[in-house]
Design a protein that fits this description.
The protein has 78 residues and is mostly helical. It has one domain. Helices cover 68% and strands 0% of the residues. The chain contains 4 helices and no strands.
Length: 78
């Protein structure tokens, strides 16, 4: 069986590494994938995923970092 990551999956993976480890190269990679795959990346699904993942003590940090991602790609939170 061949498993292929979608652009949305790839962005989520890179954002999780950015959120957890403050790895700016992962933030830039997520933004780069979004910019190049804008038509296939599901920003609503990514935002819903961030909302689910940002429970507990890291909620503010995840939210702040996601806003940085949105600013980087030229989008405002809806």
């Amino acid at each position: 069986m061949l498993h292929i990551l979608t652009s949305t999956d790839t962005i989520r993976d890179r954002l999780m590494n950015y959120f957890a480890w403050n790895d700016l190269s992962c933030l830039n990679a997520a933004a780069g994938v979004y910019e190049r795959q804008r038509d296939s990346a599901d920003l609503s699904a990514i935002e819903a995923w961030v909302a689910r993942e940002s429970n507990g003590p890291f909620a503010r940090d995840y939210d702040r970092k996601f806003r940085i991602f949105l600013e980087l790609i030229g989008r405002n939170r809806t």
